[in-house]
């Protein structure tokens, strides 16, 4: 059986940006000119437009009707760089609420801005205003340092993300996706700086968005609190473990990378949150004892990369620890929990972000390919897509190490008895169906006409009956119980071949992965569908998915198959076609 290996020379998201121009936003076109503008014109009398005027007047900008940068609640002139507060088309919009250039104090923002957030290293890219809580006050209350807050409304965030990839003041991105996001443009725009993606509540293809974000090395979450928690860690410079560091596998480094200190009351609440995640208890500090505070900070600084300080925020703000520190009130349990979960996810070991390499069993592969029917020709033209029988498809998959059902086609009752002697009973006696690219149709037909036989006599009788209707009969072993997954190869415009995985019968969102398959993609897919907490099943399913993807990719197959999830996952049905080339 071929086992997946990780290709060590695969490009990472950091290396893909190595060939870019120096950190500068000067040559990024209209989006850069808009975001770097020093004069604006606000057109309209809506409450949103009035709020933009108020916020602009708080900064070093001019309101000039001749400005190239317009903010409007109506239609924008064709020759202007625009922000649409309503449903018009613009560089930001429709339904943008503007942006905050926090470094220069410029805020063409249609949202409350009683005070500006702390200047920091993280940029936020978000959709329309009603998709999220009021961000500016929230950022202030969380003491989260930001460089930019940019609303793209219902538009595509790709150009704004490219601007931020070149912005020297931005070290990380918090990206909340909206209805205008396009997976095809998102892949390139996310690659580069560390980023965290907040998925929209509704989208036609959440699985593909997750796949694109993973390929760009972005963290993906559907939790708003976890999204902000990752932003706080980005602002503090707290990143994932370097490749090769083994502490996370031993479960040690994740406990040593951060220390939680409680100043004053609330230690019991914090203790319960830490216990739930099996983390060391907090360091309790008497907030009124200056010497004890100094000793606790010194000890925590020596043993940790990050400090989480819990207590009265006004008192904590006066401390000056030499390590990055995050300040929380002990009552903010949801925030603390999200922060700890985000921290652990950065500290956990993970599969490599590199293509898996599966070496087929060469002799077996050559035998299978040699025995396949020759190319078909119609009117002198070769048929480019030739469906394979379930049995031939499985033989091809098996040459890449894929575990498939043990089965054999038979055309006589005598040969059926020889096969059943090897497979044992009970055994499925199934109709020999013609090749198909619809695995659901294949599975339905087998379920309708197939018979589970307990004895050799039953096998002989059912084989004889089915041979009266079909050219051959298929004898197949009984597979273990478990959920069934439909795996389908589809071609996505702008992204190439994509592997989609979804339950065969239950209603659930499909997961996806770009091809060639990466090791972390295979692990992510397996974790969704394997039994919770079953690491062995995750590994086995990830291996099987990797082998399937390698066979499909290298042999230019199309179609779909069914995987039965169990301790030893197995391909149950295969409806594949060979894409022949001249």
CATH superfamily of the largest domain: Succinyl-CoA synthetase domains
Q: How would you state the average pLDDT, rounded?
A: 88
Biggest sheet record:
6 strands, mixed
Specify the oligomeric state: single chain
What is the number of independent domains?
4
Strand order of the largest sheet: 6-8-7-9-10-11
User: Rough shape?
Assistant: globular
SS-derived structural category: alpha/beta
Summed up, the helix count is 21
CATH architecture label name of the largest domain? 3-Layer(aba) Sandwich
Low-confidence stretches: 6-27, 244-255
Our estimate of the beta-strand percent is 15-25%
Helix content: 25-40%
Report the radius of gyration as a whole number of Å.
29 Å
Instruction: Tell me the span between the first and last alpha carbons.
Output: 31 Å
Q: What is the total tally of β strands? A: 28
Say what the CATH topology of the largest domain is: Rossmann fold
CATH class division of the largest domain = Alpha Beta
